[in-house]
Amino acid sequence: MAAGLQVFGQPASTDVSRVLTCLFEKNLEFELVRIDTFKTQHKLPEFIRLRDPNGQVTFKHGDKTLVESRDICRYLCNQFPNDGNKTLYGSGALERASIEQWLQAEAQTFSPPSSALVFQLAFVPHLSHLGIRQDPAVIVENEDKLKQVLDVYDEILSKTEYLAGDEFTLADLCHLPNSHYIVNTERGRKLFTSKKNVAKWYDKISKRQTWRQVVKMQTEHPGAFE
I need a labelling partner for 96 at 20 to 30 A (CA). Which of 82, 103, 138, 149 fits? Predict the structure, then answer.
């Protein structure tokens, strides 16, 4: 039984929502401590100085502190292998190796352009009161990069139900937060719907109850947009 699991951050954060989804998939009890990193007057606990550069998520389990969302997901799967979704991180060395390849691909190839688009398309419209405006050149550049990535995904997904095979795993889960924000913008949606297999895959993973729980939390506590 999991005990003392704490997540510090806002559900609206892509890093936080990635960790929350993993916790729900593993059916683990946890405490979410909502911290609005946009409010600089908020007094943060001392250990949160260990957070990642964007201050998006901090995870504590007893005296263990982690700050990178994918590493937190790996930790949860390794620490609680028999809880909830037992195949989330693969059920053997070969499956895990495949999932790891996809986690690397997501972090290094998918995340950079998709994160830029999340900020430009989904977040910036809510930050106009701070004088922040969309940058058309940045949008076009990262759309082109993401299209190339999704072309590869579409080919892979023509042969398997999910990225690492025929079961939902961390490989798919880690793509959900950025994909969600992009698909929920009029311009970004076309990047996914224009590719048959990617569209089918995203539709399937975004309907998982665990992810819907996170989206509900984001709606109830928008956090960064307040």
Answer: 149
